[in-house]
Design goal:
By secondary structure, this protein is an alpha/beta fold. The chain has two domains: 121 residues, Aldehyde Oxidoreductase, domain 3; 111 residues, Aldolase class I (TIM Barrel), CATH 3.20.20.70. A six-stranded parallel sheet has the order 6-11-10-9-8-7. A four-stranded antiparallel sheet has the order 3-5-1-12, covered by helices on one side. A two-stranded antiparallel sheet has the order 2-4. The chain is elongated and about 70 Å long.
Length: 282
């Protein structure tokens, strides 16, 4: 990612404002304005690095004169002891930008590392790991970017780019068939081509979904034996997503049933940050 888009720029602005507000009083009190320094981003755990371009944008927002030298490309594997970037400039600026930059970098790298672990486990199958909307409000763009950098794929970005008919929609609409038909009519009326996915919880619902124009059938919390039956029933008529009960222990078995997608909410809602520090020297 060579260019930071406007939405991410706004996010960075508010993140810095949240931390700095009227000024970094500790740094102002203890560090001379004229003092220069450099710092290295030190990786303290094995994983995937993600968010270096965002970290760079944070430093540039605090002080455009800071030099940010990337040593490792976003999406690359890193190990303990690697230096992924070096920053040089006014010491005050480096210290003021440090925490905000690290917050983005550690979270994104944690997501990317988790995504990569999942992707490696199922790489012998056709299945793709996809993310969900279970993201921190305001951080979805970065969370989903980190998922891609880790080797997995994005599901819909929000409520606006794909139909996903869930149990509550079905309950209110009256049936799976009625809900899908309504989405088909919406596409026709608005001259759109949004894909239609429908959630199912048992085989009888899969059977009904197959009679509709759904593009994807989600198997929500299916046991493995039932999932295999559903895959056989669907028989390639549409794409299949497995959802619910997915973790590092179960994902291999789920992928081997023949599903096309496996959604993992934990990629973004239960993030373990990758341990990275900024070590500053004169």
């Amino acid at each position: 990612m060579n260019k930071i888009d406007r939405n991410i720029s706004k996010l960075i602005f508010f993140a810095i404002k949240e931390d700095v507000n009227n000024g970094d009083i500790t740094t102002k009190a203890t560090i001379s304005k004229s003092k220069k320094a450099s710092g290295k981003f030190l990786v303290k755990a094995d994983g995937i690095i993600a968010g270096l371009e965002i970290a760079k944008a944070v430093f540039k927002s605090v002080d455009p004169k800071i030099k940010f030298e990337t040593k490792i490309k976003d999406g690359s594997k890193v190990k303990y002891g690697d230096v992924c970037a070096i920053v040089t400039g006014k010491a005050q600026s480096l210290l003021t930008a440090e925490r905000t930059a690290l917050n983005f970098l550690q979270r994104m790298s944690g997501i990317a590392s988790s995504a990569n672990t999942y992707a490696e486990i199922i790489k012998h199958t056709k299945a793709k790991i996809i993310d969900t909307r279970k993201t921190v409000p305001g951080l979805r763009t970065l969370d989903k970017l980190a998922v891609k950098l880790g080797g997995c794929a994005n599901h819909r970005i929000g409520l606006y780019d794909m139909f996903l008919i869930k149990d509550n929609h079905i309950e209110v609409a009256g049936s799976i068939t009625k809900a899908v038909e309504a989405c088909v009519k919406y596409n026709k009326k608005h001259h759109t081509k949004f894909k239609i996915e429908v959630e199912t919880k048992k085989l009888i619902e899969v059977e009904e979904a197959l009679t509709t124009k759904a593009d994807i059938i989600m198997l929500d919390n299916f046991e493995i034996d039932e999932m295999k039956k559903a895959i056989k029933l669907i028989n390639g008529k549409c794409k299949v997503e497995a959802s619910g009960g997915v973790n590092l222990e179960t994902v291999k078995t789920i992928a081997e049933t023949g599903v096309d997608f496996i959604s993992v909410g934990a990629l973004t809602h239960s993030v373990k940050a990758l341990d990275i520090s900024l070590e500053i020297t004169l």
